[in-house]
Amino acid sequence: MALRGEAEGEGERSLTRYVEDDIVLSVNITSAECYTVNDVWERAFMDITAPELVLRKVINFSDCTVCLDKRNGSGKIEFYQDPLLYKCSFRTRLHFTYDNMNSKIPAVIKIQTMVESLKLSITDQQLPMFMRILELVIALYYGAIGGPREGEGDEGGGLAVREAAAAAAAAAAAAAGILP
Length: 180
Known about the structure:
Blueprint: E1 3-4, E2 9-20, E3 23-37, E4 47-48, E5 54-70, E6 85-97, E7 108-115, H1 126-141, H2 157-175
Antiparallel strand pairs: 1-4, 2-3, 3-5, 5-6, 6-7
């Protein structure tokens, strides 16, 4: 018995917008491609077979632009900020390891991303919005949004999430050269 991992896809001109209160996060991708690869990361048709229960995928993104803007009370963006990420192309490798042939969810997922050129920018006005988005992502990860994860309580999670978000945002801002 072998599991098949042949799902492939291509897409062009994707615009995704997330709105949270007065924050607008937009992600524009000119093209994306996903395909299965062999053990040397070359495009191939692969079966997941014993003893190595592994599936490898590659996702290529071209011209990815991420914008973070503030909207006014009527929902309009009066002044567009510089993009956080501008026309960045990158390749992501996904390595899925399964426990057994009947597993539907991988036991281990490894992700590697290669970026040839990175044009990253964050303004004074974007920093608080970026920290808020980061706080939401961390809260989602830890289950503070949408209810607690199975087996986890809900006591005191909000403070830990805010502290983790603040530390991550400070590290990102320092890396971008915004903070000393």
